[in-house]
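Morning, I've got a small favour to ask if you have a moment. Here's the protein in full, and shout if anything looks odd to you:
***
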Amino acid sequence: MIALNRAYAHGPAVGLVLLDAARAGGGLDGYPLAVAVEADLVARQGDRRRAAGLFREAAAMVGSTAERRALLDRADELAP
Protein backbone atom coordinates (compact mmCIF):
# COMPACT_ATOMS: atom_id res chain seq x y z
CA MET A 1 0.00 0.00 0.00
CA ILE A 2 2.87 2.39 0.75
CA ALA A 3 4.32 1.72 -2.70
CA LEU A 4 0.99 2.58 -4.32
CA ASN A 5 0.69 5.82 -2.37
CA ARG A 6 4.23 6.80 -3.27
CA ALA A 7 3.69 5.98 -6.95
CA TYR A 8 0.49 8.01 -7.07
CA ALA A 9 2.03 10.98 -5.28
CA HIS A 10 4.90 11.29 -7.76
CA GLY A 11 2.64 11.81 -10.75
CA PRO A 12 2.27 9.85 -13.96
CA ALA A 13 5.79 9.54 -15.36
CA VAL A 14 7.63 8.67 -12.16
CA GLY A 15 4.60 6.97 -10.66
CA LEU A 16 4.34 4.38 -13.43
CA VAL A 17 8.05 3.55 -13.04
CA LEU A 18 7.61 3.17 -9.28
CA LEU A 19 4.51 1.06 -9.78
CA ASP A 20 6.35 -1.26 -12.17
CA ALA A 21 9.13 -1.64 -9.61
CA ALA A 22 6.62 -2.41 -6.85
CA ARG A 23 4.97 -5.04 -9.05
CA ALA A 24 8.27 -6.74 -9.90
CA GLY A 25 8.15 -8.91 -6.80
CA GLY A 26 4.63 -10.10 -7.54
CA GLY A 27 3.25 -8.74 -4.28
CA LEU A 28 0.65 -6.65 -6.08
CA ASP A 29 -0.56 -9.39 -8.42
CA GLY A 30 -4.34 -9.62 -8.38
CA TYR A 31 -4.68 -6.43 -6.33
CA PRO A 32 -7.37 -4.27 -7.94
CA LEU A 33 -6.16 -1.06 -6.30
CA ALA A 34 -2.79 -1.44 -8.05
CA VAL A 35 -4.59 -1.66 -11.40
CA ALA A 36 -6.79 1.31 -10.51
CA VAL A 37 -3.75 3.40 -9.57
CA GLU A 38 -2.11 2.46 -12.86
CA ALA A 39 -5.31 3.42 -14.67
CA ASP A 40 -5.40 6.82 -13.03
CA LEU A 41 -1.74 7.49 -13.76
CA VAL A 42 -2.22 6.46 -17.39
CA ALA A 43 -5.27 8.74 -17.63
CA ARG A 44 -3.23 11.61 -16.24
CA GLN A 45 -0.69 10.97 -19.00
CA GLY A 46 -3.48 11.37 -21.53
CA ASP A 47 -4.04 7.78 -22.71
CA ARG A 48 -7.76 7.70 -22.05
CA ARG A 49 -8.46 4.49 -24.00
CA ARG A 50 -5.83 2.46 -22.13
CA ALA A 51 -6.90 3.96 -18.81
CA ALA A 52 -10.53 3.01 -19.44
CA GLY A 53 -9.47 -0.57 -20.13
CA LEU A 54 -7.44 -0.69 -16.94
CA PHE A 55 -10.36 0.67 -14.89
CA ARG A 56 -12.54 -2.08 -16.38
CA GLU A 57 -9.88 -4.65 -15.50
CA ALA A 58 -9.79 -3.39 -11.91
CA ALA A 59 -13.61 -3.48 -11.78
CA ALA A 60 -13.59 -7.14 -12.76
CA MET A 61 -11.31 -7.90 -9.82
CA VAL A 62 -13.30 -6.31 -6.98
CA GLY A 63 -15.97 -8.05 -4.94
CA SER A 64 -17.93 -4.99 -3.90
CA THR A 65 -20.75 -3.82 -6.15
CA ALA A 66 -20.16 -0.20 -5.11
CA GLU A 67 -16.44 -0.38 -5.92
CA ARG A 68 -17.18 -2.07 -9.24
CA ARG A 69 -19.69 0.63 -10.16
CA ALA A 70 -17.26 3.43 -9.25
CA LEU A 71 -14.49 1.89 -11.36
CA LEU A 72 -16.82 1.30 -14.30
CA ASP A 73 -18.13 4.87 -14.03
CA ARG A 74 -14.55 6.13 -14.24
CA ALA A 75 -13.93 3.90 -17.27
CA ASP A 76 -17.05 5.28 -18.94
CA GLU A 77 -15.87 8.86 -18.32
CA LEU A 78 -12.64 8.10 -20.18
CA ALA A 79 -13.93 5.93 -23.00
CA PRO A 80 -13.84 7.61 -26.40
The helical segments are 2-9, 12-23, 32-45, 48-61, 65-78. Residues 2-78 form one domain.
